[in-house]
Amino acid sequence: MTGRIFAALRTLPASGRIGLALVILWLLIAALGPVIAPHSPGAFVDESVFSGMSRELWLGTDYLGRDVLSRLLWGARYTVFLALGAAMLAVVTGTSLALVAAIRGGWIDEVLSRSMDTLTSIPSKIFALVLVAAFGSSLVLLLVIMAVIYVPGNFRIARALAVNLISLDFVQVARARGEGTAYIAWREILPNMIHPLMADMGLRFVFVVLLLSGLSFLGLGVQPPLADLGSLVRENISGLSEGASAIIVPAIAIATLTVGANLLIDALKPGARS
């Protein structure tokens, strides 16, 4: 297993290795950030607001005199893990529905496909804004909303893959043996869809990061006293002229996370996705 991982890493182009390094970096920051943060995210560490970078405060302070570095390390956890959880939930849900639709066919396929088309027709940001405004913002609600928004996209991809695989001989043999829907889905079809589905989950992750950051920038995402990367940009926007690091650094964090994930996805060889 380890040999396969190193072999795959050697085949990655330079852009893919850069993307992998950025993704691993932000995963480590999200996991270990609260442990290595020099201060509590809500602690007032300086009487001056938007103070500059110094030896004690590497990224300066925000609009309330709190340590920007500490809040960045804590905020990365919500951005990364919420986006990762929503992407995984969207892929699991969309793929499960796609397998049922492709294998059973008929009216089940028609109902599921038209339902997904209906969800796709609703603009994602408007859908999220309406639900957040109606039910309030919470971490669980944000997770569910973002997962639901990106289920249709995964459903279409997974269904197309499953429909192509159903016509192959090994699936027909399994049906001739009298195997049920669950066996055919999970033992015959799904293992042959793993690579493209993993690439799709990476794309969903990027989309969720951008959507979550946009919602937080509008004040409808992660709510105080918690903060994610988008919240850090929004709450310090008034100090752009005097405390630029409090705004620019979280924005760079969002950019490096999404660009790194995109570079890694793009570097995957087409042959590895089949």
UniProtKB/TrEMBL annotation:
Q: Does the keyword Cell division apply?
A: no
Localization: Cell membrane
Q: Name one GO cellular component term.
A: plasma membrane
Q: Name one GO biological process term.
A: transmembrane transport
Question: What family does the entry list?
Answer: Belongs to the binding-protein-dependent transport system permease family.
Q: Which Pfam families match?
A: BPD_transp_1 (PF00528)
Query: Keyword annotations for this protein?
Result: Cell membrane, Membrane, Transmembrane, Transmembrane helix, Transport
Residues that span the membrane, as ranges? 18-37, 80-106, 126-151, 203-223, 243-265
* Protein name as annotated: ABC transporter permease
Q: Spell out the SUPFAM superfamilies in the cross-references.
A: MetI-like
Lineage of source species: Bacteria, Pseudomonadati, Pseudomonadota, Alphaproteobacteria, Sphingomonadales
Organism of origin is: Croceicoccus ponticola
Start and end residues of each ABC transmembrane type-1 domain: 76-265
- PROSITE patterns found in the cross-reference section: ABC_TM1
Q: How does it sit in the membrane?
A: Multi-pass membrane protein
Q: Which domain of life is it from?
A: Bacteria
